[in-house]
Design a protein that fits this description.
Elements: H1 2-14, H2 18-27, H3 41-48, H4 50-69, H5 83-102, H6 115-125, H7 127-144, H8 147-165, H9 171-187, H10 189-197
């Protein structure tokens, strides 16, 4: 029962609609009515600029971290003999937070794609792996200005790091890493098509948006 209540808490944490609250509270508009229509960091970067996008990305990542940290509220997982159970429960908490981000109860179940919250999940369980993925993300973003491409390559780097660089032995975590990469690629199919066609939208990194763009699909 306690685990179930923590899972509900993880969902509620993930449901915090950062992009919606920032866009409404600071800019007087609903981010879901502009750009791709998603309430995530990518669309915030595109519509509101790098400052707002960075803030939304940071908070959305923290949602994943906080959800995973809920596991430490149970004494059962303090025992080193229960390490496998701990990792499995942490992954479960993080994934529920991602579901909350995608279908937020606080914002009519219209959220984002959950990439930043996924990174937060990984950051809480494997900080070095997460920081490596963030490094890949920032490098690709700096070189290309494509948030979507940065997310895709960083997600592909995740299982590569887990399987070959850090040599993680926990089976469920290895499967999870591969599943994350596949999920990100599948949810970015339209972006991939636009990248190949050369019409994917770039984001400005060193200046704010002076106007909102409509009808930009993510």
């Amino acid at each position: 029962m306690t685990e179930f209540l923590l899972l509900i808490c993880a969902y509620l944490i993930g449901s915090i609609p950062t992009a919606v609250w920032v866009s409404k509270g600071v800019f007087g508009m609903d981010i879901r009515e502009y750009g791709s229509g998603n309430a995530g960091a990518t669309n915030t970067f595109r519509v509101l600029g790098p400052k707002a996008g960075s803030f939304v990305m940071l908070i959305d990542m923290l949602k994943g971290v906080l959800a995973v940290r809920l596991s430490y509220m149970l004494n059962f997982y303090d025992n080193p003999d229960h390490l496998t159970e701990l990792v499995n429960f942490q992954i479960g908490l993080g994934l529920v937070a991602v579901i909350g981000h995608i279908f937020p109860i606080w914002a009519s179940f219209r959220g984002g794609k959950g990439i930043a919250t996924l990174f937060g999940l990984v950051l809480a369980i494997q900080p070095l792996v997460a920081l490596s993925c963030v490094g890949v993300f920032l490098l690709i973003l700096f070189l290309t200005r494509y948030v979507s491409l940065s997310s895709i390559i960083a997600s592909i780097a995740f299982p590569v790091l887990i399987l070959y660089i850090f040599n993680e032995q926990e089976l469920y975590y290895r499967v999870f890493a591969i599943a994350v990469a596949l999920m990100v690629v599948l949810t970015h199919q339209k972006n991939i098509v636009r990248l190949f066609n050369g019409n994917e939208n770039k984001v400005p990194l060193f200046r704010n948006r002076s106007m909102f763009r409509r009808n930009n699909e993510e």
